[in-house]
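Support request from a user on the community tier.

User writes: "When I paste my structure tokens into the form, the page sometimes reloads and wipes my input. The last time it worked, I copied everything first. Here is what I submitted, just in case something in the input itself triggers the reload:"
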């Protein structure tokens, strides 16, 4: 019999390969951005076939959602077409081939995918799956792992996102905030169909972001995905109606404070856990009932992650948009 799951995997991998080759050969940067979004969507589909729905959700939100929007804002600084210079093409090819071979060699020592005798399957996974229901009691074990068992790692990821925002804004010289009164590099609000459709979709996108934020305990989702989706709605509004209206709703000084506040909220949960007699990020001591304490801690830290991610993504878009307006002031008239 035909294994349809295997056929789907092969088809998706083939499409990923074709898309990657097309991206490497193209000189039209706008087309490359569009193909990059398609690559992210195909990657999300592949993760779904591997039953990694949470990872697929993140890839769809980041790779096929907000990344193309950020790349579009960067295109205003670079121009649409690649120049004809390929003086470093051979060096780049050799570097990519060597890196690829190193990665392939590195996978030879890894256990086979789904191997029940691997350390992850025989020790870590068993512990999480068997004890998660009793200790945390939420349906989505992925949330239990990321927000509780691996709370230290997730806290580090939130700090990395905040640090990335500080780094990007510092490199662009915009820590004092984007230039007020600028316009989006792609202003599409004059088109009646786009304006009407966006006016209907943006509130639904924001509502869906809140659903993903507070439904991560019961299904795929959480602070990372919700933050990206929320930011995508604000960025879409900015691209359609201009930067100034978006900045009146999401003011850059407030966003900078919120980006830091999200990380502070996450870390404060760990401090409160220690003051309550537990260890850092041990949510069990936050309530008389350890399970209720776990629920409370996860909700609060996921909210902090969502606030930081959303604020960071919007700030980065505002930074690139304001920089492109300064470089091309004729586009904001």
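"...and here is what came back when it finally went through:"
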């Amino acid at each position: 019999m035909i294994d349809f799951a295997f056929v789907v995997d092969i088809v998706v991998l083939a499409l990923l390969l074709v898309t990657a080759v097309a991206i490497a050969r193209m000189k039209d940067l706008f087309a490359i951005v569009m193909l990059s979004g398609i690559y992210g969507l195909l990657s999300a589909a592949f993760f779904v076939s591997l039953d990694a729905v949470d990872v697929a959700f993140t890839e769809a939100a980041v790779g096929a959602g907000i990344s193309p929007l950020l790349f579009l804002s960067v295109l205003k600084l670079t121009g649409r077409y690649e120049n004809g210079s390929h003086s470093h093409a051979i060096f780049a090819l050799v570097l990519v081939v060597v890196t690829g071979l190193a990665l392939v060699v590195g996978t030879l020592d890894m256990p086979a995918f789904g191997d029940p005798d691997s350390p992850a399957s025989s020790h870590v996974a068993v512990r999480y799956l068997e004890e998660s229901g009793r200790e945390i009691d939420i349906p989505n074990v992925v949330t239990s792992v990321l927000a509780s068992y691996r709370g230290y790692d997730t806290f580090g990821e939130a700090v990395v996102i905040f640090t990335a925002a500080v780094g990007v804004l510092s490199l662009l010289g915009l820590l004092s905030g984007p230039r007020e009164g600028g316009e989006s590099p792609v202003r599409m609000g004059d088109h009646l169909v786009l304006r009407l459709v966006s006016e209907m979709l943006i509130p639904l996108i924001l509502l869906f972001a809140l659903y993903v934020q507070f439904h991560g305990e019961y299904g795929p989702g959480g602070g990372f995905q919700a933050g990206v989706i929320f930011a995508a709605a604000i960025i879409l509004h900015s691209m359609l109606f201009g930067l100034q209206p978006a900045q009146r709703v999401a003011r850059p000084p407030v966003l900078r404070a919120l980006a830091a506040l999200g990380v502070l909220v996450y870390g404060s949960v760990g401090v409160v856990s220690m003051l309550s007699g537990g260890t850092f990020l041990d949510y069990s001591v936050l309530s008389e009932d350890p399970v209720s304490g776990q629920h409370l801690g996860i909700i609060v830290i996921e909210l902090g992650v969502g606030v930081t991610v959303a604020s960071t993504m919007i700030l980065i878009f505002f930074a690139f948009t304001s920089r492109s307006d300064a470089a091309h002031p004729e586009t904001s008239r």
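Agent notes: The reload is a front-end session timeout and is unrelated to the input. The CA atoms of residues 69 and 147 lie 28 Å apart. Residues 174-186 have pLDDT under 50 and may be disordered. Escalated to web team.
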